[in-house]
Automatic annotation (TrEMBL):
Residues 10-231 form the Protein kinase domain. Keywords: ATP-binding, Kinase, Nucleotide-binding, Transferase. The keyword Nucleotide-binding applies. One of its GO terms (molecular function) is ATP binding. This is TOPK kinase. PROSITE patterns: PROTEIN_KINASE_DOM (PS50011), PROTEIN_KINASE_ST (PS00108). Transmembrane segments: none annotated. It holds the Pfam family Pkinase. The lineage of its organism: Eukaryota, Metazoa, Chordata, Craniata, Vertebrata. The keyword Repeat does not apply.
Length: 231
């Protein structure tokens, strides 16, 4: 349920990113000179219709329910589920970093730099793999939307954390998604082959394929499966 946490109005927080029907803000928490670590706050957009708001509230509650069970250094942690002054439901999370891996890839491309250094790619690979191993083997959970925008980075890759477990799916004892009513959502350019094939078997491997594509992004500085001009 909701806890007693005061969330500032949106204009008083720095916007970190956005998704379907929600925005993510940086909430600084240092009352009376005390130094508290900041939070990332996922908030339902005020411009949503009533039906959209109900849908996004349900999704946010489901995400909070999943997130509060997780505790791993490479996965963004749960902090609170509460309401903003305007009545919007908010999910407060550990602040995993200033930028997403996708932001850093775009910046590097715009600066005309080449691929990320091999040690950096290895560090990201190990961090993500450890987070996914925890999700798959200890929590029996498929993340279901691995991609560079869902990896947050603090500083000069001081920490690398997977975020956004909103579309995660339960795995059975064989690490497969066996419930026929559940559907892999993902994001088109990062989807594994089995998610694109009729009757494809979704399993823990369905997170590993997009992990590989995310590392490929760090080499190519491009979104995977992007159709490039023939020239």
């Amino acid at each position: 349920g909701a806890v007693s946490v005061t969330i500032p109005a949106s204009p008083f927080m720095q916007k970190l990113g956005f998704g379907t029907g929600v925005s993510v803000y940086l909430m600084k928490r240092s009352p009376q000179g005390l130094s508290h670590s900041p939070w990332a706050v996922k908030k339902i957009n005020s411009g949503c219709s009533q039906s959209q708001r109900s849908l996004f509230q349900r999704r946010l509650r489901e995400e909070a329910q999943k997130l509060r069970k997780l505790q791993h250094p490479n996965i963004v942690g749960y902090r609170a589920l509460t309401e903003a002054p305007d009545g919007s439901l908010c999910l407060a999370m550990e602040f995993g970093g200033e930028k997403s891996l996708n932001d850093l890839i775009e910046e590097r491309r715009e600066q005309g730099l080449g691929a990320f250094p091999a040690p950096t790619i290895l560090h990201v690979a190990l961090s993500m793999a450890r987070g996914l191993q925890y999700l798959h083997t200890e929590q029996r959970l498929l993340h279901g939307d691995i991609k560079s925008p869902n990896v947050v980075v603090r500083g000069a890759f001081d920490s690398v954390k997977i975020c956004d477990v909103g579309v995660s799916l339960p795995l059975d004892e064989n690490l497969a998604v066996s419930d026929p009513n559940l559907r892999y959502v993902g994001t088109e350019p990062w989807k594994p082959p089995e998610a694109l094939e009729p009757g494809g078997i979704i399993s823990d491997r369905s997170d590993i394929f997009p992990l590989g594509l995310t590392l490929w992004e760090m080499l190519a500085l491009s979104i995977p499966h992007l159709i490039l001009p023939e020239s």
